[in-house]
Specification:
Blueprint lengths: L1 H17 L4 E4 L2 H8 L4 E7 L4 E7 L9 E3 L6 H7 L7 E4 L6 H10 L4 E4 L1 H9 L3 H18 L12 H15 L17 E5 L35 E7 L12 E5 L4 H20 L6 H14 L17 E3 L6 E4 L13 E4 L2 E4 L3 E4 L2 E6 L2 E4 L8 E2 L3
Parallel strand pairs: 1-5, 3-4, 5-6, 9-17
Antiparallel strand pairs: 1-2, 2-3, 7-8, 8-9, 10-11, 10-12, 12-15, 13-14, 15-16
């Protein structure tokens, strides 16, 4: 484990050198986990030379490392650096995108001689490509997430609501070992154990930055299942939690209640065609924007552009990075400047919303390899009828 931590630290150190940052102080939950592979309350301090210390206010009993330095408050960090014979950095990176204003202000006062820069982009870039250890963690997630999904068909009952259905799916996931919590990036993202969208609820826009919306059961958390009865002639799209360790996979499948329209069936097959195409074309060096444009091209060819990535309200992406957080870099948008690199992990989700029926489409989690995208969430992609 310590060797894996060193790899992560060295990736960050290299990026600090590229950006002329002397050191970084990491304090957000996701990046604490990335740098320590265990969560604790405190900070990870990393220099551009690759030296690191864990300044811990409240430790996790599971975390044992020779680089731990115990502190009571962040103001002690500078004096601890001096005790360790380390100089206070002239340029110090802080996570402006993740930490609160009060946290940043407090840390700035603790380092009165330092100049501060935003290091959030450095950490996003470091996490964008994965090591084989990280990929194996995600592969473990994929195995257990798909195993849970295989049991979802068994829980449906006539006159069931989408919320009742979701509760049963959550039970299956937890029994499979799901942690019951997803780390997400950004203050515009909140999620419970995932999204279940039945019928026209899938066409309800959400203020969150999700591919699909849903009104939810309360205006306090306006997203996902809304408590309506699952009726024949509609679909139910399931995009549920894939967090079985510190990493995550993202997976969407669709079921139908009785028979659905030919248009909905056609759109679902179009989603699968898009995935098969992108799996071949998603090689290192390909612009992320090119994958988006190819998906749009296929949707237009099929005459389905009106329903692609939403109907009432569309989103301008077809996929995103995934790992410690559910939504990482890169994002597959038409304006993306990112280029695919080997060992990036992507969730690609070409989805359609058909009025009167619901959402259709498939989402898989992939690893970028030299010969294309490797699917680590292999599961039947056809629409299965819940009524037998």
């Amino acid at each position: 484990m310590n060797s894996e931590i060193s790899i992560h630290i060295n990736k960050i150190a290299a990026l600090l050198n590229e950006n002329n940052i002397d050191a970084i102080l990491v304090g957000s939950n996701a990046n604490i986990y990335y740098t320590a592979l265990c969560f604790f309350r405190g900070y990870t301090y990393i220099t551009k030379e690759g030296l690191f210390r864990f300044f811990i206010i409240r430790n996790n009993p599971a975390f044992k490392n020779p680089n731990i330095v115990n502190i009571r408050k962040p103001e002690e960090i500078t004096s601890k650096l001096e005790e360790l014979g380390l100089s206070v950095p002239a340029v110090l990176g802080l996570e402006f995108d993740s930490l609160s204003f009060s946290d940043i202000t407090r840390l700035e006062k603790a380092f009165p001689s330092s100049t501060f820069v935003n290091s959030s982009p450095v950490l996003r870039k470091a996490r964008m490509t994965k090591t084989e250890w990280e990929i194996n963690e995600m592969r473990y997630d994929g195995v257990h997430q798909t195993e849970a999904y295989r049991h979802f068909t068994k829980v449906y009952k006539e006159d069931m609501t989408d919320v009742e259905f979701q509760i049963e799916l959550e039970r299956i996931l937890r029994l499979e070992g799901c942690l019951g919590y997803s780390r997400v990036s950004g203050n515009l993202m909140e999620i419970n154990l995932g999204s279940v969208l039945n019928g026209d609820n899938a066409d309800t826009p959400s203020p969150y930055e999700f591919a699909m919306g849903g009104s939810g059961v309360s205006s306090a958390v306006p997203g996902g299942a809304n408590g309506t009865e699952m009726k024949p002639g509609t679909t139910v799209m399931v995009d549920m939690n894939g967090a079985f360790n510190g990493y995550q996979t993202d997976l969407t499948r669709v079921w139908k209640i009785g028979e659905i329209s030919q248009l909905a069936e056609k759109a679902h097959e179009c989603s699968r065609r898009i995935l098969r195409t992108l799996e071949k074309e998603g090689t290192p060096g390909v612009p992320c924007s090119a994958l988006y444009e190819k998906a749009m091209e296929i949707a237009r060819e099929e005459g389905l552009e009106e329903y692609f990535m939403g109907h009432n309200k569309k989103v301008a992406f077809i996929g995103h990075g995934v790992g410690i957080e559910l939504n990482e870099m890169p994002v597959l948008t038409p304006r993306s400047k990112d280029v695919l690199a080997e060992n990036m992990t992507l969730a690609i989700e070409p989805k359609f919303v058909i009025p009167g029926v619901g959402a259709v489409g498939v989402e898989n989690t992939y690893v970028v390899r030299d010969n294309g995208l490797e699917n680590i969430t292999v599961l039947n992609e056809e629409i299965i009828n819940l009524i037998r």
